[in-house]
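Justification of computing resources. Each target in the renewal requires a structure prediction run like the one illustrated here; the chain below, 141 residues long, is used simply to show the kind of job we budget for.
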Amino acid sequence: MEGRELYGRGSSGLGGGRERGAATLWGVAFAGVLMAMAMAIVYVGMARVARHRAQSAADLSALAAARLSVHGPERACARAGLSASANHAVLERCSVEGMIAEVQVSVRFALPGVGERRVMSRARAGPVHQVPEGAIPPRSG
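Resulting structure tokens:
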């Protein structure tokens, strides 16, 4: 009984009975904040990965369309659509003017608890310099 009288009535430690369990609550609150921060980092990472996937799909689709631009815009855009779907993207828009192809693709991704989102990306591909018809291109090297 001497130990109980020394520490105060009904307490099990040095500080008195009012502080009992407060560290547990602070620990749970801290763990909750850490979990929320980790989830935010994961969500941002998922969105960045989707953005990079969309940009890669757009770049590859534009290159595919530009490669076939001499065969007409229908065939070039059809190839761009195949390239986009091979990269798990959807071709939203495609235009071919001369030898320059412009495409816009979208990639869908899902965030747990938030739902499905869509990322759009555009790309343009073609020769650096267009040579006028009948002109002889400059020699390099």
